């Protein structure tokens, strides 16, 4: 009997110890993934590409919102409260983010902390002010144009800055993040230039040529009996029919896109950034459109529609309303689909034949997502 009691007691104590160990393991928080919060959905999409299964990503604004003005709701501050990494442009675009960071009181992601990432570093900013600034100039950005995400080539630099942040807060998985960032950059190059030119010249060389304004002169050269431009693919090849075209824009948020794809902005519906168009300014824009035969107007979907529609009626110009960020329309669930959408609708606005829906002219080497060819 005593032996039985000893065995029973031992069994019970073993069971209790094992139960306690299990309960204890449940009580100890194990962080399998990093929580990353980004200001914009574009940065969230890029972060997910690099972070893969090691991260969960949330964003504070949506693709149909004005990026300059996001209400600092308590629910947004709550997202930041337990974040490991915060990703922002780092210029004077997301002024609203400072209020949210203050409300969240998360020391890990405050400006200057390891978990605070600015993605503009290393990008050559356009439209830097050259004169003394005053409020009469409108909602001008003192460092230059902050809408850097409208250039696919800028995504590579953005991804490098995000990579640095991920490695700082999660050094154990540095190699994993590095591999995925490298694959993402290659994916961008192939989407932009097509496989043939990337394989021949490399993405870095092509990027330098395009951003320096010399790519298309270079592509007039022959290689193995063929003009190099015939090897061009990707978005640049798809956008060739409207390269060199003149357009009107509502706001200066397309500066990097038009640089990459060769559109020329003649004037803006806003007389100055952030200042609503006056009747006098609209009249001046209408006169320019008629005089120069401008066919298309670029308008981010978050702007008011009355002025563009009125200008359409007076001139016959086509207003093309485009989401500025990922998720602004259902068809743009990531950065690549967003640029597909932009190019297709710009071509449609010019009366040009769009590419086959959903087609990408690049090889999907990353193992991330579904290949579209």
Automatic annotation (TrEMBL):
Keyword Transport set for record: yes
Alphabetically ordered keywords of this record: Signal, Transport
Gene Ontology BP term (one): metal ion transport
InterPro entries tied to this protein: Bact_metal-bind_prot9, Lipoprotein_PsaA-like, ZnuA-like
GO molecular function, one term: metal ion binding
Signal peptide residue numbers: 1-23
Family: Belongs to the bacterial solute-binding protein 9 family.
Protein name: Zinc ABC transporter substrate-binding protein
């Amino acid at each position: 009997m005593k032996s039985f009691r000893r065995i029973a007691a031992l069994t019970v104590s073993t069971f209790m110890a094992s139960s306690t160990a299990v309960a204890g393991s449940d009580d100890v928080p194990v962080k399998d993934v990093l929580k990353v919060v980004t200001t914009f959905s574009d940065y969230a999409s890029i972060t997910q590409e690099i972070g893969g299964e090691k991260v969960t990503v949330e964003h504070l604004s949506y693709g149909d919102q004005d990026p300059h003005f996001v209400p600092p709701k308590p629910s947004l501050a709550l997202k930041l409260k337990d974040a490991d990494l915060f990703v922002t442009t780092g210029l004077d675009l997301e002024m609203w983010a400072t209020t949210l960071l203050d409300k969240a009181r998360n020391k890990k992601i405050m400006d200057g902390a390891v978990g605070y990432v600015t993605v503009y570093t290393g990008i050559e900013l356009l439209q830097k002010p050259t004169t003394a600034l005053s409020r009469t100039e409108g909602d001008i950005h003192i460092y230059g144009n902050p809408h850097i995400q409208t250039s696919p080539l800028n995504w590579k630099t953005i991804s490098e800055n995000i990579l640095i942040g991920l490695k700082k807060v999660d050094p154990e998985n540095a190699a994993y993040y590095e591999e995925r960032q490298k694959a993402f950059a290659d994916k961008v190059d192939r989407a932009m230039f097509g496989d043939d030119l990337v394989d021949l010249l490399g993405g870095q060389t092509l990027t330098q040529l395009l951003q320096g304004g010399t790519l298309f002169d270079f592509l007039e050269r022959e290689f193995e009996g063929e003009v190099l431009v015939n090897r061009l693919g990707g978005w640049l090849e798809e956008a060739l029919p409207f390269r060199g075209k003149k357009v009107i824009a509502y706001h200066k948020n397309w500066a990097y896109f038009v640089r990459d794809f060769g559109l020329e902005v003649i004037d803006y519906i806003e007389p100055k950034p952030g200042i609503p168009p006056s009747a006098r300014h609209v009249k001046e824009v209408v006169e320019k459109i008629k005089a120069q035969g401008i066919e298309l107007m670029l308008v981010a979907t978050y702007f008011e529609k009355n002025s563009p529609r009125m200008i359409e009626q007076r001139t016959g110009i086509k207003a093309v309303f485009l989401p500025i960020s990922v998720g602004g329309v259902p068809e743009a669930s990531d950065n690549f689909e967003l640029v597909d959408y932009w190019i297709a609708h710009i071509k449609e606005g010019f009366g040009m034949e769009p590419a086959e829906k959903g087609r990408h002219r690049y090889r999907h080497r990353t193992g991330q997502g579904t290949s579209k060819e």
